[in-house]
Design a protein that fits this description.
Elements lengths: L1 E4 L2 E10 L2 E8 L4 E5 L6 H5 L3 H4 L4 E5 L16 H14 L5 E6 L1 H12 L4 E7 L10 H8 L8 H10 L5 H14 L6 H5 L4 E7 L6 H10 L3 E6 L24 H10 L3
Parallel strand pairs: 4-5, 4-6, 6-7, 7-8, 8-9
Antiparallel strand pairs: 1-2, 2-3, 3-5
Length: 267
């Protein structure tokens, strides 16, 4: 289906992926860049403000993961490894042999798993506010996740889901599966992180959920990586919907020129 959002044309569709009907959107032309949203989010709630900027110079493949947005669910828990396999299968269905990958938050952890599990598909990698180890966030984060309730989910994310989901009753299921995934989160072993050969840009905000120490540890483990710590909170640097300020402008999304420069850099 052809549509326009904020003056940007895109095509949307569904692909049969590992038992899911996986929703995706295609924007622009050029080298492929895959966008992977954060936990509890949709394409638009994570990337809606910056898609018009990124689509000027490349083809974007924006996805919605299991139980999120317009993508169906399957029996069983969600995992970063399965999400990575789902994105890889979608790319193969779309005949995309190699792409740059940009994931935010939980999507950043999924992006790292794609680089670990499907290295042949990854050219460059942008891991934004991604978590690899439990000590990468303050200890109180885990207590918060154990107490997670749908009523405490940010209203912007609940509204974003209800705006696009085919069945809004899935909101509770998505919330509970995402919360359980985080409660059960296990460290990605050092050797797997070190196995990432893709040129990688690691980004966090200086007031992020992810600690600067964790970002530095990731930077040291991934040999071919760069690190950027940007002023702002979790996703503020890309206009993630819960961080938006009144009268925001494109210039506020300060990570985008940095990401584009990284992606355009010749190896």
């Amino acid at each position: 289906m052809d549509t326009r959002v904020d003056g940007v044309a895109f095509k949307s569709g569904y692909s049969e992926v590992n038992g899911l009907k996986m929703y995706y959107e295609l924007y622009g032309e050029g080298k492929p860049l895959v966008l992977i949203h954060g936990g509890g989010s949709t394409i638009q709630t994570t990337f809606g403000r910056v898609i018009p900027m990124l689509a000027k110079h490349r083809q974007l493949i924006a996805v919605e993961l299991q139980a999120h947005g317009r993508t169906s669910d399957r029996v069983g828990e969600v995992s970063f490894e399965q999400d990575a396999d789902d994105v890889a299968a979608l790319l193969r269905n779309l005949n995309i042999l190699k792409a740059d990958i940009f994931g935010f938050s939980n999507g950043g952890t999924t992006a790292l798993q794609i680089a670990i599990r499907h290295p042949e598909l990854v050219d460059k990698l942008v891991a934004a506010s991604a978590l690899c180890k439990r000590n990468g966030v303050p200890s109180q984060f885990w207590d918060f996740m154990k107490q997670a309730r749908l009523e405490n989910m940010p209203e912007q994310l609940k509204e974003g889901y209800k705006k696009v989901a085919l069945d809004t009753n899935g909101l509770q299921v998505m919330h509970d599966k995402d919360a359980k995934r985080m409660v059960d989160f296990k460290d990605i072993p050092d050797e797997k992180i070190k196995s990432i050969k893709a040129s990688t840009l690691i980004i966090i905000g200086d007031k992020d959920v992810i600690t600067p120490e964790h970002a530095i540890e990731m930077h040291r483990l991934i040999a071919n990586s760069e690190l950027a710590i940007i002023p702002g909170g979790h996703g503020e640097y890309i206009g993630e919907v819960t961080t938006l300020k009144p009268n925001y402008q494109e210039i506020d999304f300060i990570a985008i020129p940095m990401i584009e420069s990284f992606l355009d850099k010749k190896e």
